[in-house]
Specification:
alpha/beta
C-alpha cells in the first residue's frame, strides 16, 4: 500500500486541496497498540481503492499535535486507531477500532469511480 505520511501541519492543507479532486483517507495509527496494528494490517490487506483515493498515514505517537489538529480541523473526535475520509475539504466519514474497513468507505466514493 502506498501511504503518504503526515508529518507537518501543511500536510493537512494539502489533503484538503487534494480532496477536491479525489477523496482522501487518513489512517491514524498508534504504533504501541496491538488493536491499532491489527486494524492497520486488516485494512491494508482489504485495500483495493488505490486508484480512487489518496491514502495518508499518521503515526499519532510521533505526531500527537498533528493528531489533535486533524480532530479540530475535520471536526471529529480523536480516536486510535482511526480512519477518516475527506471529500471536498470535509470529513464525510470516520471510524475507529473494529469499525475500520474498506467496505465502510466505498459508499462515499462515487460509483462511477468504482
Amino acid at each position: 500500500m502506498n501511504w503518504n505520511n503526515i508529518t507537518e501541519e501543511h500536510d493537512l492543507e494539502n489533503i484538503i486541496e487534494q480532496s477536491h479532486k479525489k477523496p482522501c483517507l487518513i489512517f491514524k495509527h498508534s504504533t504501541r497498540c496491538i488493536i491499532s496494528k491489527m486494524a492497520l494490517k486488516t485494512f491494508e490487506n482489504e485495500f483495493d481503492l488505490q486508484p480512487y483515493v489518496e491514502a495518508y498515514f499518521l503515526d499519532l505517537l510521533a505526531y500527537r499535535s498533528l493528531s489533535n489538529a486533524i480532530a479540530e480541523k475535520f471536526e471529529v473526535q480523536h480516536q486510535s486507531p482511526q480512519l477518516i475520509l475527506i471529500k471536498e475539504g470535509k470529513a464525510v466519514f470516520d471510524a475507529s477500532h473494529e469499525n475500520i474497513s474498506v467496505e465502510s468507505i466505498k459508499k462515499y466514493i462515487t460509483s462511477t469511480a468504482l
